[in-house]
């Protein structure tokens, strides 16, 4: 088999593994601070970040990629965007639809591969993603796809981070937290994933494109190569992290504050 054939087969298998992983995560996804919104101050902090980079909705069409249980879609709906959420994990979509129905929100959720959306050309005024880019198998193809579906002059907002490279300080804080939790000296934080899924998670992370970490400057450079212009890198997410920290133990809050997290906004030429 050719090298290309092997790569294609490998990527197909990895995509299916990622889909299965997030499907399994759906049941507990909203239990974790940093996923669902746990307070009104956090909601307000997210609104401020979105308004800073995208402006008010005013009925503009927004595409929420890897929408999960619809957390970001609801924030966008709050601000007056007409939102479509795409995800390829059916259990996530089931929760998102149920949540929208319970809250009386007119948000459309559809199953799709966010790297190959099948959406029409020049359709959306804005695209938003949260914690998606670091998991991409083929970001070059994904970014080109996102340029395609944006209207000329449309804007993208990516909220993400480097969740691979861990500083010495972060390693020390995590080790201290584990020790204090075992000793009963520190409350145990809500888990992002059941322990049995963490091995699968780590294996997947080792094989995605950004297996060495998604740094803001690298992501921005790749967006530029795909055709985006006017890049803004925003590393001031402190207001959001401060509101989330109230739901973690203090060591976890300290850890979050020193991680490389960012928001990048950019626009499609024209318009």
TrEMBL record:
Annotated Methyltransferase type domain residues: 63-158
Q: Which domain of life is it from?
A: Bacteria
Keyword line: Transferase
Gene3D superfamilies in the record: Vaccinia Virus protein VP39
Q: Which GO terms describe its molecular function?
A: S-adenosylmethionine-dependent methyltransferase activity
Recorded hits in Pfam families, A to Z, give: Methyltransf_11
InterPro entries associated with the record: Methyltransf_11, Methyltransf_Superfamily, SAM-dependent_MTases_sf
**Protein name, entry field:** Putative methyl-transferase,S-Adenosyl-L-methionine (SAM)-MTase protein
Q: Which organism is it from?
A: Rhizobium mesoamericanum STM3625
């Amino acid at each position: 088999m050719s090298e290309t054939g092997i790569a294609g087969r490998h990527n197909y298998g990895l995509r299916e593994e990622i889909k299965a992983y997030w499907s399994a995560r759906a049941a507990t996804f909203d239990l974790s601070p940093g996923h669902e919104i746990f307070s009104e101050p956090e909601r307000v902090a997210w609104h401020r970040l979105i308004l800073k980079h995208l402006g008010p909705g005013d009925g503009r069409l927004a595409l929420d990629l890897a929408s999960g249980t619809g957390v970001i879609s609801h924030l966008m709906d709050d601000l007056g965007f007409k939102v479509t959420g795409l995800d390829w994990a059916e259990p996530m979509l089931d929760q998102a639809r149920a949540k929208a129905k319970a809250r009386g929100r007119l948000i459309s959720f559809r199953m799709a591969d966010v790297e190959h959306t099948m959406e029409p050309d020049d359709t959306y005024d804005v695209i938003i993603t949260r914690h998606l880019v670091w998991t991409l198998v083929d970001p070059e193809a994904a970014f080109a796809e996102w340029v395609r579906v944006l209207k000329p002059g449309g804007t993208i907002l990516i909220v993400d981070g480097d969740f691979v490279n861990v500083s010495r300080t972060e390693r020390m804080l995590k080790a201290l937290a584990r020790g204090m939790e075992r000793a009963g000296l520190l409350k145990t934080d809500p888990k992002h994933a059941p322990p049995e899924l963490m091995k699968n998670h780590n294996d997947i992370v080792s094989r995605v494109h950004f297996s060495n970490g998604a740094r803001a400057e690298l992501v921005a450079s790749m967006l530029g190569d795909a055709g985006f212009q006017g890049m803004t890198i925003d590393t001031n997410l402190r207001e959001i992290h401060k509101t989330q920290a109230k739901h973690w133990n203090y060591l976890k809050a300290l850890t979050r504050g020193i991680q490389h997290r960012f928001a990048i906004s950019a626009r499609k030429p024209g318009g």
